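Appendix B, Record 12. Input sequence as logged:
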Amino acid sequence: IDVGSAPAAPVNTIKNNTATLPTPVTASSQQAQFCPQPEKLIKKDVKWTTEDAKWENYTPSSATKILGFIGAQWAGIKVGTIICLYQTNEAVSFPVALEQTRSQLIVEPKAGGWSSLVGNRRFCKSASVADCVYFIELPKDISNIYEEIKYDPKTNDGM
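Logged structural output:
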């Protein structure tokens, strides 16, 4: 995982992280979204995922336990993608990096614990998923797209 000039992730074991979070919602509303809680991750073969299969890591992992959330990384220009990082019980491995299995555009995060923009990336270093809040880009309303593109020479001002 390329973390650029971001500080190294903490190696502390996270215990009793019981923050209560709002339930994530669909993209049709502009409510806060969060990385999955560490205790919600399950291992299937050599990969980590969530029970609903909405998040998955694509790099095989020999870790047997997720110890806690250590942060998130966003990459893009105005909108982009996000990965969630988790510390494992293996001292010599990289953190588990979960990605959304269904690509959703994430609005550039600026609130909470997110860093300033560093080469089209933002970093959130925290033991709590609540500090790394993000929002999904809402789909554009295209219900009247044909009305918007109709050409009427009588109303065209030549511009």
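Residues 1-28 have pLDDT under 50 and may be disordered.
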